[in-house]
Amino acid sequence: MLANASYVKEEASAGMTFPGIFAQMARQYFARYGDHRATLARIAVKNHRNGARNPYAHVRKDLSFEFCNTVSDKNPLIDDPLRKTDCSLVSDGAAALVLADEKIGRTLARAVRFARARR
What contacts 11, CB < 8 A, 6 or more positions away? Predict the structure, then answer.
């Protein structure tokens, strides 16, 4: 987690970090649309479940909704309303998109595995 990271030129001078900025956005969203901490917990559960099934994931823990939706010693409040499980690690998550027409695509070496192709 980038707990102490920020765009130094602007945010760090104001005492802001990436989690602080995202927490501020969440507070504004919650003020406008209602408290959605449970929704954030469900997203964390889904993400951890996917990580638990991925042999290449850095964190392979299948966490419960109760754990992700509760502030505790193992899931502390990072910056209200964000808990540790609401914050992503730098090491997890990747995506690739390769666009080519079929003729060119068939001539290229396969540096990536195609999970799905749209026809």
Answer: 17, 18, 20, 21
Q: d(Cα 9, Cα 16) in Å, to the nearest integer? A: 11
DSSP string, 36-82: -HHHHHHHHHHHHHHHHH-TT-S------HHHHTS--SSS-EEETTE
pTM: 0.68
Residue 30, both tokens? 């919650």
Omega before 19 within 30 of 0, i.e. cis? no
pLDDT digit string, tens, across residues 52-91: 998 878 888 999 999 999 999 999 999 999 999 998 877 6
Phi and psi (nearest 5°) for 82? -85, 130
How many CB atoms are closer than 10 A to CB 43? 14
